[in-house]
Amino acid sequence: MNYNQDMIDELNLLALYNLDSTLAGLKIHKSSASPNTVAAAHRLYTKGLTTQEDGGYLTTIGHEAAEMAQTLFHLINPA
Q: Would you list the DSSP string of 12-39?
């Protein structure tokens, strides 16, 4: 099992969410974000992990996914 670039882009976005507040979301601006980031935000939305196509807030399952993504990041990058 390997992560492909799409998965890595999605994990990177999930890692940006502030898990301490359900009122903190992300806004991905198509004019300034990379095409990979814009596409990752769209995929997270279509998977039901976020509330908006351009970021928005995490859904319940999105919050769980972001927790896992952030935990994994800290486990493999303990610095």
A: HHHHHS-TT-TT--EE--TTTS-HHHHH
CA distances from 49 to 64, 74, 79 (A): 9, 21, 28
**Alpha carbons 47 and 66: distance in angstroms, whole number:** 13
Domain count, the chain: 1
pLDDT band at 66 (very low <50, low <70, confident <90, very high): very high
Q: Which residues contact 39 (CB under 8 A, 6 or more apart)?
A: 6, 9
pTM for this entry = 0.91
**How high is the pLDDT of residue 4?**
97
Parent domain of 48: 5-18+26-76
